[in-house]
Amino acid sequence: MRSICVYCGSGSGHDGVHEKAARDLGAAMAKAGIRLVYGGGGIGLMGTLAKSVVDNGGKVLGIIPDFLKRKEMPLDAVIDVVTVPDMHTRKMRMFTEADAFVALPGGIGTLEELVEQLTWAQLGRHAKPVVVANVGGFWDPLRVLLDHMKDEGFIRPGLQVKYSIVDEVRDIIPTIQAQVAKLPQEALAKEHDPVVIEKM
User: Fold this and answer.
1) How many domains does the chain have?
2) What is the pLDDT of residues 23-80, one digit of tens each?
3) pTM for the complete prediction?
4) What is the domain-level CATH number for residue 75?
5) At a CB cut-off of 8 Å and minimum separation 6, what does 21 contact?
6) Which residue range(s) make up the domain with 73?
7) Alpha-carbon dihedral angle through residues 28, 33, 34, 36, given to the nearest 10 degrees
8) Pure H helices in 82-169
């Protein structure tokens, strides 16, 4: 496993536990020699996470649409920043660059990116690990909603939503490493092109 894509907020939230989680994850990724792939912003949890990776000697790839540069202000410390024309290109590039996905707390954009990866996995478009970092119980309402969808028959047998949920940042990388170790090499290949799903 060489790279993890982390989805997280361009804001920091009210609870300092979220910012600490971003710092701790960044440090852990750098220590493990795992590159961060993220949305390219320099503010909020995104900025905290990327700065932590860099400060601890790690590598970062930021991918940001041109129209968001003024709003999310990429970090000068992140040398490897790719500017793309739109959100669809950004998400596709993040997918192809990553071996796994992590969702820290965030807003509607973070939720949308997480659910998209869950959908692609559900439909068999990839087998890359998806980990939900339930820091301070942030994602509990989503768990309730997914259970409700299942109970109501909208998530049917054979179409289970495949993800791991962890409560502690220290468990994120070991959880992903354990899942990657069980996957055949081809499961992480890039040929599973989720653009097919976007066009449906």
Assistant:
1) 1
2) 999 999 999 999 999 999 999 999 999 999 999 999 999 999 999 887 777 777 777 8
3) 0.90
4) 3.40.50.450
5) 104, 105, 133, 135, 169
6) 3-198
7) 80
8) 87-97, 108-122, 140-151
